[in-house]
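Format notes (please read before filing issues)

Several people have asked whether sequences and C-alpha cells are stored in separate files. They are not. Every record keeps both together, in the order shown below: the sequence lines, then the C-alpha cell lines. Line labels are part of the format and must not be stripped during preprocessing.
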Amino acid sequence: MEIERKKYNDSFINPAPLVDIAFLLLLFFILTSHIIKETASIRIALPDSKTAIPETQGITTVIITGEGDLYLANTPVKIENLKNEIVKIIKDRGINSMEIKSDRDANVGILVNVIDEVRLAGIRNYSLITERR
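Then the structure lines:
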C-alpha cells in the first residue's frame, strides 16, 4: 500500500512574521533615535549660523542659559568659580580645548565674561557652538 503525500503549495508567504519584524525594527529605531540625541538636560536655543559645522563629542562644554545660569560639564557653576573649575578639569582630563554654548537670548556680557574666564584658565582653543540655519 502506497501512502500518498500531501502536496504543499510553496507560493504562499505568511505576512504575520514580516509585520512583526517590521514593527520590531520600527521600535528599535524610535528608541535609539532618542538615545543618539544630546543628553544634556539643560535646554537652550542655540543661535543660527550659516557656517556651523557638526560638534565633536567628548569635549568639555560651558553652557550659558537664557536666564544667565552657567553650567560646566552639566553641573551648575558660578562665574566667580568658573576659572578654578576649568583648571581642575584641565588637570584631571588633560584637555586643551573647550566648547561654549550660549542661549541666543543670553546676555552678551555674560558670554564675554565666560570667554575671559576660559582664556584665563589657560584654554586658548575654544569654540562657540551654533546651529546650522
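For reference, the curators noted about this record: Helices lie at 16-36, 82-93, 108-120. The domain at 48-132 is CATH 3.30.420.270 (Nucleotidyltransferase; domain 5).
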